């Protein structure tokens, strides 16, 4: 499976249709710690630690990864 880009508008449309999604916050620990914005329910997995956390990421729905 290959990663593809998706716009904020496309994500909103999916949410509006009730599609189940997984949000993966891949910001660095520094960026995450300094941010006032944290998406409720998002999985916190820094980009350089994805392989260590693969077992925690649901595979039964699309994964939306975001960072700064």
Number of domains: 1
Q: What is the string of helix and strand elements?
A: HEHEE
Radius of gyration: 12 Å
CATH class: Alpha Beta
Q: What's the CATH architecture? A: 3-Layer(aba) Sandwich
Give, in spatial order, the strands making up the sheet with the most strands: 2-1-3
Structural class: alpha/beta
Q: In what range is the share of β-strand residues?
A: 5-15%
| Overall residue-averaged pLDDT value | 89
What composes the largest sheet? Answer: 3 strands, parallel
Q: What is the CA-CA span between the terminal residues?
A: 24 Å
Tell me the overall shape.
globular
Stretches where pLDDT is under 50 for at least 5 consecutive residues are none
Amount of helix = 10-25%
Number of helices: 2
**Can you count the beta strands?**
3
* CATH fold title: Oxidized Rhodanese, domain 1
State the fourth-level CATH superfamily.
Answer: Rhodanese-like domain
């Amino acid at each position: 499976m290959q990663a593809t880009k998706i716009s904020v508008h496309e994500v909103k449309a999916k949410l509006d249709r009730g599609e189940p999604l997984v949000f993966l916050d891949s910001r660095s620990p520094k960026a995450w710690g300094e941010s006032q914005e944290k998406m409720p329910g998002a999985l916190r997995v820094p980009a350089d630690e994805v392989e260590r956390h693969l077992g925690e990421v649901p595979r039964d729905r699309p994964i939306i990864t975001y960072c700064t």
